[in-house]
Design a protein that fits this description.
single chain; 574 residues; alpha+beta; 14 helices; binds ligand 9MR; binds zinc ion
């Protein structure tokens, strides 16, 4: 199945690259699409899963027809559900449930005067998007030349001197060059961060552990394809190897590597400024320990170096009882901060590192079965709810690994409490999704809201796995539907996916080359956006398809990981 999916994908990727030429930079159309519409998931729907569209207009009532493209015939006529007023657009939004349509094919929906984009009902509806999103990691690789015939991405080996220790410590005086080449460019810019590399790898390795059948060798057409190893694992090893280089001799981990100035819209090999390695931090060291422990159990004996690195990181953490971050004024002149920094990043979990240690202790215990890790996790777990997984708070991935690990010795009997926390979270998400006009389960719109939508979708899928409850699954599918077109813009937030996808993603390589590349998830609506072009304070309408909007229309490696996690879990849900 993977191979078949890939064969299709390779052709479509190439087609995407030629059908949508010259769309790399530039400006999009006006932000708000406040007009009647039938918004659908433009990638499509799995035949076996719930299928819901939204009819939005001044008054949303009546029947909606499901029209089959091939025959032009109406195959179903569905009465719209009760409508809710959307305060952002002023439209009435009503649910159109056409789950009964299960026959594979191409369809559109129509009601008087409005028609939806075309979409498929197909078991392979998401295969193309899944592979395209996974391939972006190879396109984001740093320290190597990238030449990808399928998308046209081409640049020479970049950042060969990464990096120079900026502040100095007793292991590495200021000015020391350590070999920290490799890894991935974090986003549309060229910084490299432990915070997002770890959460990205964690999310994707978790998907691999739960659904190994989604992945294979040759699936992604990356340089390692055909070497007998699963492409995803080769790609994750690329990121893990960089992380290993960010570990200091005593086990602590440096938190980021970047230039002191933001690079222009140039190819990475033209970004010739000195790139610095910034100070060590305990939250990063804990995330590092977590992801290395995951890698150790996936690679087995071949992953001994990962296990050793995880143990050394944990040992260092034991010498540091409270959160410790080496941050100095000026550290963020050319890169993201990824630390407590209100109001943008003011979450309580950024003021301590218990959430990060919770993740580390869980993964170390799942991997080793050793009592001290169990005790550490048992001490931390009761203090954490099941929360949204991201760099600001990765604890829920620890809870997930502990809960779903096969053959785990839960000698402390923690699983019932974790299960209860996850279901409490899912019930809260369900209530929100049921009352939000566009079916969203997220609490607030923050920078990277689309990633958060995907993560809440993942929590709902996990709740469905535990209980088999159809309402959890429907809400999970609804989060994906939003991201792929069932939103007030009637746009898919993933480049190259769907009839009307985001076009002008903020991304230096794509802008410098003037190419359009499929598989990048845009950040999404953010009313507090700090860039000069995003519409501020307009709720869900605070998004613009404009390459200058780094706060709503940039991609980052952790965004794609969340999206891949949701799509992969849904593809694997019967
Ligand atoms: O995704 C990050 C988001 O969670 C933060 O709130 C935001 C502000 O700190 O930064 C985002 O990450 C950006 C990073 O700071 C700089 N490079 C691009 C990243 C994605 O927009
Ligand atoms: Zn680079």
């Amino acid at each position: 199945m993977t191979r078949r999916g890939f064969a299709r994908t390779a052709g479509l990727l190439a087609a995407g690259a030629t059908l949508l030429p010259g769309l790399g930079g530039g400006f999009g159309r006006a932000a708000a699409a406040v007009r009647p519409m039938i918004a659908v998931n433009q990638a499509g729907y799995l035949p076996r899963h719930p299928k819901q569209a939204f009819l939005a207009g001044p008054a949303a009532a009546g029947d909606v027809s499901v029209v089959e493209e091939a025959s032009g015939r109406t195959v179903a006529s569905v009465p719209v559900g009760g409508s809710r007023r959307d305060p952002d657009t002023g439209l009435q939004v009503a649910t159109v449930d056409f789950s009964a349509v299960r026959r594979p094919g191409r369809y559109w929906l129509q009601a008087d005067g409005v028609q939806s984009h075309g979409f498929v009902v197909d078991d392979l509806a998401f295969d193309l998007a899944f592979v395209a999103m996974l391939r972006t990691y190879w396109l984001q690789r740093c320290g190597t030349a990238v030449r990808d015939p399928a998308t046209g991405v081409a640049h020479a080996a970049c950042h060969q001197d990464d990096g120079v220790i900026l502040h100095g410590d007793r292991f590495n005086p200021a000015g020391t060059r350590i070999d920290a080449r490799g890894g991935w460019h974090d986003a549309g810019d060229f910084g490299k961060y432990v915070a997002t590399a770890t959460t990205t790898i964690g999310r994707l390795l978790s998907l691999y552990e739960m659904q190994p059948a989604l992945f294979g060798d040759g699936q992604l057409s990356i340089p390692e394809s055909g070497n007998g190893a699963v492409d995803l694992l080769d790609e994750m090893a690329w990121g893990l190897d960089w992380l290993l280089r960010m570990q200091r001799a005593d086990g602590a981990v440096y938190r980021k590597l970047s230039g002191a100035q933001w690079p222009g819209d140039v190819l990475p090999e033209s970004d010739r400024q000195t790139r610095y390695v910034y100070g060590v931090a305990s939250p990063e060291t804990a995330k590092f320990a977590a992801v290395m422990a995951m890698a150790a159990r996936i690679w087995g004996p071949a992953g001994a170096v990962y296990l050793d690195a995880a143990r050394r990181a944990w040992a260092w953490l034991e010498t540091v009882p409270e959160q410790q971050v080496d941050w100095r004024a000026g550290d963020d002149a050319g890169s993201g901060m990824y630390l407590y920094n209100p109001p943008l990043d003011g979450e309580e979990t950024l003021r301590h590192d218990r959430d990060d240690r919770t993740w580390a202790a869980a993964e170390l215990y799942v991997t080793t079965g050793e009592a001290p890790f169990q005790r550490a996790f048992a001490a931390l777990m009761p203090r954490t709810d099941f929360t949204l997984f991201e760099w600001k708070d990765p604890s829920s991935l620890g809870l997930t690994s502990y809960l779903f690990a096969p053959r785990l010795d839960d000698r402390a009997g923690l699983r019932p409490a974790i299960r209860q926390k996850l279901l409490a979270r899912a019930d809260q998400l369900l209530r929100r999704a049921a009352s939000a006009p566009w079916g969203l389960a997220i609490e607030r719109l923050k920078w990277g809201s689309n990633k958060m939508v995907a993560e809440e979708g993942i929590a709902l899928v996990l709740a469905h796995r535990l209980t088999g409850r159809a309402d959890y699954l429907a809400a999970a599918v609804g989060q994906l539907d939003y991201l792929l077109g069932r939103n007030p813009f009637e746009r898919s937030f993933v480049t190259g996916v769907g009839a009307d996808p985001v076009r002008h993603i903020h991304h230096r390589v794509l802008q410098a080359q003037g190419i359009y590349v499929p598989g990048y998830l845009a950040g999404g609506p953010f009313p507090g956006a700090t860039d000069p072009v995003a519409p501020k304070g307009r709720g869900l309408l605070s998004w613009v398809d404009d390459a200058r909007s780094y706060a709503t229309n940039e991609n980052a490696i952790d965004y794609n990981a969340s999206m891949i996690g949701l799509v992969g879990l849904l593809m694997s849900t019967p």
